[in-house]
UniProtKB/TrEMBL annotation, chain A:
Its EC number is 6.3.5.-. Allows the formation of correctly charged Gln-tRNA(Gln) through the transamidation of misacylated Glu-tRNA(Gln) in chloroplasts and mitochondria. The reaction takes place in the presence of glutamine and ATP through an activated gamma-phospho-Glu-tRNA(Gln). Subunit of the heterotrimeric GatCAB amidotransferase (AdT) complex, composed of A, B and C subunits. It comes from Hibiscus sabdariffa. It is found in: Mitochondrion; Plastid, Chloroplast. Keywords: ATP-binding, Chloroplast, Ligase, Mitochondrion, Nucleotide-binding, Plastid, Protein biosynthesis. NCBIfam families: gatC. It catalyses: L-glutamyl-tRNA(Gln) + L-glutamine + ATP + H2O = L-glutaminyl-tRNA(Gln) + L-glutamate + ADP + phosphate + H(+). Coiled coil: none annotated. It comes from the Eukaryota. This is Glutamyl-tRNA(Gln) amidotransferase subunit C, chloroplastic/mitochondrial. HAMAP family: GatC.
UniProtKB/TrEMBL annotation, chain B:
Its EC number is 6.3.5.-. Its main location: mitochondrion. SMART domains: GatB_Yqey. PROSITE patterns: GATB. It comes from the Eukaryota. Allows the formation of correctly charged Gln-tRNA(Gln) through the transamidation of misacylated Glu-tRNA(Gln) in chloroplasts and mitochondria. The reaction takes place in the presence of glutamine and ATP through an activated gamma-phospho-Glu-tRNA(Gln). It catalyses: L-glutamyl-tRNA(Gln) + L-glutamine + ATP + H2O = L-glutaminyl-tRNA(Gln) + L-glutamate + ADP + phosphate + H(+). Residues 415-562 form the Asn/Gln amidotransferase domain. The lineage of its organism: Eukaryota, Viridiplantae, Streptophyta, Embryophyta, Tracheophyta. This is Glutamyl-tRNA(Gln) amidotransferase subunit B, chloroplastic/mitochondrial. The gene is GATB.
Length: 148, 566
């Protein structure tokens, strides 16, 4: 199955990932994605932003909920870019869907099911070893007050 | 103005009857919860106190006697609270999470066992490690369909999973796989009967939806940090959302109890609130009677038992009603409150800023969930007799509502009862034995009905033996205990202990003669007017006959002989 979500992240390649809950781990790294993707993005000729009824997102709030930190200049810089992306997808609004049944999902196969048979994962030690802060038998985490 | 605490005391006091009755009622007394309420009545100033003791929880839930701040007669307080709440209608809805008793988790093959060592049942999938992909457990669909059908829902033959995204330490992937806009089941209802001590009555409550999702891990707070155990992460849940049809705390508690009954009957969960396999969050709002707009909705969490559901809702209704009646309705805000078992009240959680944005989108890693009509039909055929059907069947057989509610509450008890009947036992007698002596034995020895040694067949035999006169009722009760503890057959015990009832009048007469001749003094007293001594003679005859004399015959012949010579 395609990991559709990770592709979306590639597009917003320039953002730094900085979780506000600070784990002392190496998981928060900013990757430098191949520059050709960026270039492709910038030189692509977007068709005129359709006067779509799609609202541009409240960027600071969106960044907060996604735990991505943006400096004010970055907010200013990215807001129009994101609007353009949304507008670009907004072209789909032009399609006449009057005679089309809404599909629940894009794929056509169903059912990839598994029998209810227990299997112990063999290398649990490696899993535990990869935990940044582990105090037997628990995973240590900072105190978080608000469940979002 | 009355202090809220005093009003609440009055409400509690006036409801103590319901409390103590409630915890004796089989339909609401669950899983070892034990709550005693003692009242000491101070005659001098006519104020009632309530002391409550719970033997279950670690934190002391014992309320000490509190000197009243305002010495107001109890009935006045009670009347005021009742009067205030009577002007309002409460609208209650419940969200229930049922932890499924599958052998493996929802999306990976890790086993789940409640109480195992932390972080021992984990794998890359339920830990949310990069590259791991979820694969749905087919049993989850089966259990979801079973529940949807049992709750009279419409099943969506095509549904999907969605990602509910938020950050929290017990949520490894940063999102929960759930079902957002196309759940597997919608538009159902439950039928139930309210316990008699609350006025009885039939109720029907709507079910908005049932959907599949996965559980998060367990987060334990400690010191200035916290600890996470991922054993539970990925365990399958079914979320049941009710229509806001309940109007009182007891209706809500019974709704939850019925859900527990249903999931246990279906065998999809052990539905244990104390263990967390059945969790309820309640939404309460009130509005003046006659108003069509809803009031502000308040969510209550941390409800660990059916009685907490009942009490928390009643408290919250009173709290909101008092505020509204004092013109402080704006103090009721949409928020989440926690039920404090010790203080017996709801308190504000830390206020959230704004509504959560979960950014739902279809889970790209899971295919559509497709059900065929044949599959659904085959599951429908395999459903056991559900609690509501059983209750109606027992009612039609002629049992009283009280008997019906008791016998249908626990599926195993109902099965035992049905088996006893099919061995030929008399309906009412079977019900009485099970609800009376057998239930008492189970409670004392802390056994379930599957663990007692008396089989339904032997119970039927016991009932027949007494009914047919082979043994007396008293003897029957005596050997019951042995049958429960050690098993064996009724016929065998009767023979072994020589318990056959004596029904030959001549033989009884001989024993009576002997007793009379051995007690001349009492005979004289009897004939002198002390007719109460008949009991003494009867007792002696019973003793001599080792309890085998038929009581009816005994007394008849005894009376004849005692009155003969005078």
């Amino acid at each position: 199955m395609a990991m559709g979500s990770s592709r979306a992240l590639l597009i917003l390649s320039n953002f730094k990932f900085k979780p506000t809950v600070s784990f002392s781990s190496s998981s928060s790294s900013s990757k430098s994605f191949p520059s050709f993707i960026r270039n492709n993005f910038r030189t692509r000729n977007f068709s005129a932003e359709t006067s779509s009824s799609l609202q541009p997102p409240d960027l600071p709030r969106l960044a907060e909920t996604a735990r991505i930190s943006l400096a004010p200049n970055e907010v200013e810089e990215f807001a129009p870019k994101i609007r353009q992306v949304v507008g670009w997808f907004g072209q789909l609004q032009a399609v006449d869907l009057d005679n089309v049944e809404p599909a629940i999902r894009a794929d056509t196969e169903g059912d990839n099911l598994r029998e209810d048979v227990p299997e112990t994962f063999e290398n649990k030690e490696a899993l535990i070893a990869s935990v940044p802060s582990y105090k037997e038998p628990y995973i240590k985490v900072p105190k978080v007050l608000n469940k979002e | 103005m009355f202090h809220l605490d005093d009003c609440w005391k009055a409400v509690k006091v006036s409801k103590f009857q319901s409390f103590s009755a409630q915890f004796q009622s089989p339909s609401t007394n669950k899983q070892g919860e034990f709550f005693m309420c003692m009242i000491s009545y101070l005659k001098r100033n006519g104020v009632l106190y309530c002391t409550m003791k719970s033997s279950q929880s670690q934190t002391a839930t014992q309320e000490k006697h509190q000197p009243p701040k305002i010495k107001v007669p109890q009935h006045a307080l009670k009347k005021t609270v009742d009067k205030i709440t009577r002007d309002y209608e409460a609208i209650i809805g419940i969200e229930t999470h049922v932890q499924l008793s599958t052998l493996t988790k929802a999306f990976c093959s890790c086993p789940y066992n409640y109480g195992s060592q932390p972080n021992t049942s984990i794998c890359p999938i339920c830990m949310g490690l990069p590259g791991a992909l979820p694969v749905l457990n087919s049993k989850v669909i089966e259990f979801a369909v079973k529940l949807g059908l049992a709750l009279n829902c419409k099943l969506s033959l095509n549904s999907k999973f969605d990602r509910k995204q938020y950050f929290y330490p017990d949520l490894p992937k940063g999102y929960q796989i759930s079902q957002f806009d196309i759940p597997i089941a919608t538009g159902g209802y439950v039928d139930l009967d309210l316990p008699l001590e609350f006025g009885g009555g039939h109720r029907k409550f709507g079910i908005t939806r049932v959907h599949m999702e996965e559980d998060a891990g367990k987060l334990l707070h400690s010191g200035n940090g916290a600890q996470v155990d991922l054993n539970r992460a990925g365990v399958p849940l079914l979320e049941i959302v009710s229509e806001p049809d309940m109007r009182t705390g007891i209706e809500a508690a019974e709704y939850a109890a019925e859900l527990q009954r249903v999931v246990r009957y279906l065998g999809i969960s052990n539905g244990n609130m104390q263990e967390g396999s059945l969790r309820c969050d309640v939404n309460v709002s009130i509005r003046p009677i006659g108003q069509s707009e809803f009031g502000t909705k308040v969510e209550i969490k941390n409800l660990n038992s059916f009685s907490s559901i009942n009490r928390a809702i009643d408290f919250e209704i009173s709290r909101q009603a008092l505020l509204l009646s004092e013109g402080q309705g704006d103090q009721i805000v949409q928020e989440t409150r926690l039920w404090e078992e010790g203080a017996q009240k709801t308190i504000t959680m830390r206020k959230k800023e704004g509504l959560s944005d979960y950014r739902y989108f279809p889970e790209p890693d899971l295919p559509e969930v497709i059900l065929t009509q044949e599959y659904v039909d085959s599951i429908l055929k395999s459903l056991p007799e559900l609690p509501e059907m059983k209750r109606r069947r027992y009612e039609n057989m002629g049992l009283s509502m009280q008997d019906v509610l008791f016998l249908a509450n626990d599926m195993n008890v109902a099965e035992y009862f049905d088996a006893t009947l099919s061995s030929g036992a008399d309906l009412k007698l079977a019900a009485n034995w099970i609800m009376g002596d057998i239930a008492a034995y189970m409670k004392n020895e802390k056994l379930s009905i599957n663990e007692i040694k008396l089989t339904p067949k032997e119970l039927a035999e016991l009932i027949a033996s007494i009914k047919g006169g082979t043994i007396s009722g008293k003897i029957g009760k005596e050997i019951l205990f042995e049958l429960l503890a050690k098993g064996g057959t009724v016929k065998g015990l009767i023979e072994e202990k020589d318990l056959v009832q004596i029904v030959d009048p001549v033989e009884i007469g001989k024993i009576i003669d002997k007793v009379i001749s051995e007690n001349p003094k009492q005979l004289e007293q009897y004939r002198g007017g002390k007719t109460k001594l008949q009991g003494f003679f009867a007792g002696q005859v019973m003793k001599l006959s080792k309890g085998k004399a038929n009581p009816g015959l005994l007394n008849k012949i005894l009376l004849e002989k005692l009155n003969a010579k005078s």
